[in-house]
Design goal:
There is one protein chain. By secondary structure, the protein is α/β, with parallel strands linked by helices. It has two domains: 13-97, Winged helix-like DNA-binding domain superfamily/Winged helix DNA-binding domain (Arc Repressor Mutant, subunit A); 130-289, Glucose-6-phosphate isomerase like protein, domain 1 (Rossmann fold), CATH 3.40.50. The protein is built from 14 helices and five strands. A five-stranded parallel β-sheet has the order 2-1-3-4-5, with helices on both faces. Helix 2 (34-45) packs across helix 5.
Length: 290
């Protein structure tokens, strides 16, 4: 039986033969529909999954449908998802070649169970978050928190817990911190009081909640300082923020991983604490004795 010769899938004309798939998606991001942006964000931040998973599996991760993944591929100029996947594989392999061999042994054996797979993914999430951390962005965020007159933290649904935890940590450090976690009358009144002296922090996982977007848009309109903490480098919340901190949330589990997000929140609070460690230590000691 004669074997068919292997063929190289041509890249779309717009990629000019040298631009990576990730860069190509970033350049055209604003052209996509809302659901296609979900796919775009996920591919850029989880290239390994786009390279080796099926369209159906990728759609589940991006909280959309497989047909949307196919339409997104075609919107980029590919014939279908297999051609986009080949471009993702090419970029993934180039990254691996540039990075060189990794040191150290794997955390678990190859025949991982579900528990080990989830823990392994969280280990990678923290490492990926650290690798993509911008020191200048982090220092700017810590400085903004340290000098702010009022901090307003917006996070709804699953982000509400982490917004509340960040508020708790900042209040331990004697910072005036308030929460927007639902469209209640009290929360809406906090939003209306945003001014130039307010620092607004928006938390996002996947597609941002309309309330978080509304808060960030009003903050930008009123010239307030804004920080976005998001798990997508192309997040809509990040576009509205002056400072952006990325965290990785990849996981084989049925919900997003928030391990790296928790690390980011605690690290930011520790950075604020370190600005005046002696004073903060005395306050926290007094709080614990109550």
């Amino acid at each position: 039986m004669k074997r068919a010769a292997s063929t190289t899938v041509p890249a779309p004309v717009g990629m000019n033969g040298h631009q990576t798939l990730s860069d190509y998606i970033r350049d055209r991001f604003d052209e996509f529909s809302r659901s296609q942006k979900d796919v775009a964000q996920y591919i850029v931040d989880h290239l390994d999954e786009a390279a080796f998973q099926t369209a159906e599996a990728l759609a589940r991760r991006a909280n959309t449908s497989s047909s949307t993944v196919v339409r997104f591929s075609q919107a980029l100029g590919f014939e279908g998802f297999p051609e986009l996947q080949q471009a993702a594989r090419d970029e993934y392999r180039r990254r691996g070649a540039e990075a060189g061999p990794e040191n150290g042994s794997p955390l678990f054996a190859l025949d991982q169970n579900e528990y080990e797979s989830a823990l392994g993914a969280d280990h990678v999430n923290v490492e990926e978050t650290a690798r993509k951390t911008s020191r200048s962005e982090v220092e700017a965020a810590i400085d903004a928190i340290a000098v702010s007159e009022r901090v307003l933290i917006a996070g709804t649904d699953q982000m509400a817990y982490f917004a509340s935890y960040l508020r708790h940590l900042l209040m331990l450090l004697d910072h005036r911190a308030e929460l927007v976690a639902s469209p209640s009358q009290e929360a809406l009144s906090r939003i209306t009081r945003i001014d130039e002296g307010t620092l607004v922090v928006g938390l996002s996982a996947g597609r941002p909640h309309p309330l978080v977007m509304r808060t960030m848009k009003l903050a930008r309109h009123r010239k307030a300082t804004t920080i976005a903490i998001a798990d997508a480098t192309l997040s809509e919340v990040a576009k509205l923020a002056q400072i952006t901190i990325y965290y990785s949330s990849n996981t084989p589990a049925f919900v997003r991983s928030h391990v790296a997000l928790l690390s980011v929140i605690q690290a930011l609070a520790h950075g604020v604490y370190a600005r005046d460690a002696d004073q903060h230590a005395d306050r926290i000691k007094a709080f614990r004795l109550k």
